[in-house]
Amino acid sequence: MPLVLALNVFVQLAFVVHAYRSGAPRYWVFVILAFPVAGCAAYYLLEVFPRSREALTVRRAARELARTFDPHKDLRARMDELEVCGSIDNRVALAEQCLASGLAAEAVTLYRSTLAGAFENDPHLRLGLARALVEQGAWDAAADTVERLRRDHPCHKPNDTRLLHARVLEGRGETETALAEYRELAPVFVGLEARCRYGQLLERLERRDEARSAFDAAVTQAKRNASPVAAEARWAKLARDRLGALSRQ
């Protein structure tokens, strides 16, 4: 019995310290001390769990489940918003949803429609158009758009632009130049995409040892900097899957 009591006090103190350090409302200290078991449980469920990695995993799984049952829900919502108001923001939102749904040609059309008047040379919109053109596989138009971005807006998301440039080179079959671009970009790019695309190109070229090294670096980075962003989770899974496959060869 004394051991159980001591353990209970230790748990309460741990939750009290967490409440102070995390900046939680001070009434939680009273709740934890007044109701040892129920108070700790309530604090965990209402304050700790919603900010935890487990909660992010649960929310991501719920989104994926909802997308499985209704994969075009977000796309329909963006189309409804555009019908109500044809603003540039709504066109961009619909274009991004089109890209997420694999409708690159439609995204290109929407982004082109935004590049007029005062927004004709907007770097954010130009970058979106370049991404859509790359996803469409329109390599010549994508190359022109990327080159214009690098010339007119060299400080606007330069690494994102470099990644698109590398993808254009890869799409055009300029593999060695693309590899060099990926190799330089991978260590400084925020996120896993550059490393993973570098590894994928190496694997397609049957340079398995180098590909394994690239995917291993991506897996290590994912473990070190876990991200709640769905796209990053997909790249992390791809890196783990390809590393496992290459390790078995």
Which labels suit this protein?
249 residues; mainly alpha; 14 helices; extended
Topology:
Layout: H1 2-22, H2 27-34, H3 36-48, H4 53-69, H5 73-84, H6 88-100, H7 104-114, H8 123-136, H9 139-152, H10 158-171, H11 175-185, H12 193-204, H13 208-224, H14 230-248
Helix pairs in contact: 1-2, 1-3, 2-3, 5-6, 6-7, 6-8, 7-8, 8-9, 8-10, 9-10, 10-11, 11-12, 12-13, 12-14, 13-14
Q: How would you characterize the overall build of this protein?
A:
It contains 14 helices and no strands. It has helices spanning 2-22, 27-34, 36-48, 53-69, 73-84, 88-100, 104-114, 123-136, 139-152, 158-171, 175-185, 193-204, 208-224, 230-248. The protein has a domain at 2-51. The N and C termini lie far apart (57 Å). By secondary structure, it is mainly α. Helix content is 79%, strand content 0%.
How helix-rich are the residues, as a percent range?
over 70%
What best-fitting shape do the alpha-carbon axes yield?
Answer: extended
Number of helices: 14
| Averaged pLDDT | 83
Low-confidence stretches: none
User: Span from first to last CA?
Assistant: 57 Å
CA radius of gyration is 24 Å
Largest sheet entry = none
Q: Sketch the topology as an H/E string, one letter per element.
A: HHHHHHHHHHHHHH
Helix-strand makeup class: mainly alpha
Strand elements, count: 0
Strand percent estimate: under 5%
Short summary of the structure?
With 249 residues, this protein is mainly α.
